[in-house]
Specification:
two-stranded parallel ribbon, TatC, membrane, cell membrane, transmembrane, transport
Length: 317
């Protein structure tokens, strides 16, 4: 009974002291870290299979299928690359890196839920609905960007390997190759979230679809510059592979924003008015319905025979 008496009733609106907020943040961070570590330990037992998933497409595209001694007898005009590793601790370092990255990615449902559970009590019902919708759309968009990078990387590798001078064998360190693939996957995945961010601003009433459409020229230029800077490689092929889908998704987001603005306009015709601008008044006379009769006042008799009301004085008064 004593323990139940001390138990605090949870505020339905999520209000709590600062110390309680910090304690909840600590607990949710601890759960997220534990999930990442557990998945990373499991991934460590399968890290060779994970590396093979990233290495196989590039090896099929540009890998040399012969030994170093046989390379000297091949046609010098045909370039290829040999995947290598250097150093005694190189394989162990690569295993740790691949395991941690795998743990972070594969445990994302757990730490995303912890993040959502920490933020959700401070959101209104409508904001929760929008937030859940954006999270549900953000995961497939990130996965689509990551898969697009994984699909386009072999083609980009073929373009890059052709710059190798004739008669020279290109050695590809495996750790650098994994870093390149990981960065491309993350950059492409996050870049595919840009249209979702614009839609969030539009649904929140911060940015209109018409204004987004008016920014299409600087937006296309900005996306192209971003692709040139964010792409780990220096070839224009990878840059256009990243910029093209983002530009297409941008115009899709603009179209959705314009449809959403029209929907809001029909629901609220005065939505586009400034804060200090008066809305037009409808002065059309409205029909008046039938009047209702007033209830009769209770009567009260007096000693002198005068007719009085229930308020304690007679009608003459």
């Amino acid at each position: 009974m004593a323990n139940s008496a001390r138990k605090k009733v949870k505020d339905p609106e999520g209000r709590m002291p600062l110390v309680e907020h910090l304690r909840e943040l600590r607990n949710r961070l601890a759960k997220s870290v534990v999930a990442i570590v557990v998945v990373a330990v499991v991934a460590a037992f399968y890290y060779k299979d994970i590396i093979e998933v990233f290495k196989h497409p590039i090896q099929q595209a540009i890998g040399c299928q012969v030994s170093f001694s046989e390379l000297s007898q091949k046609d010098a005009t045909k370039t290829c690359g040999n995947i290598t590793m250097s150093g005694l601790v190189g394989p162990f370092t690569l295993m740790v890196k691949v395991s941690l990255v795998s743990g972070l990615v594969l445990s994302s449902p757990v730490w995303l839920y912890q993040l959502w559970a920490f933020l959700a009590p401070g959101l209104h019902k409508t904001e929760k609905k929008y937030a859940l919708g954006f999270v549900a759309a953000g995961v497939p968009l990130f996965a689509a960007g990551a898969y697009f990078a994984y699909w386009a990387l072999p083609a980009a590798a073929k373009v890059l390997i052709d710059f190798t001078p004739s008669g020279v064998t290109n050695l590809l360190p495996l750790d650098e190759l994994i870093d390149l693939v990981t960065r491309l996957v993350v950059v492409f995945g996050l870049s595919f979230e840009l249209p979702l961010l614009l839609m969030m601003l539009n649904f929140g009433g911060i940015l209109s679809g018409r204004r987004m459409l008016g920014w299409w020229r600087p937006m296309v230029m900005g996306v192209t510059v971003f692709a040139a800077v964010a792409t780990p490689t220096v070839d224009p092929f990878s840059m256009f592979l990243l910029a093209g889908p983002i530009i297409v998704l941008y115009f899709i987001a603009v179209a959705i924003a314009l449809v959403n603005d029209k929907r809001k306009q029909r629901a609220n015709p005065d939505r586009d008015l400034d804060d200090d601008e008066a809305a037009p008044l409808d002065l059309t006379p409205q029909p008046i319905g039938d009047s209702e009769p007033l209830p009769a006042l209770p009567e009260q008799s007096s000693t002198d025979g005068a007719h009085s009301t229930g308020r304690g004085y007679d009608d003459a008064t």
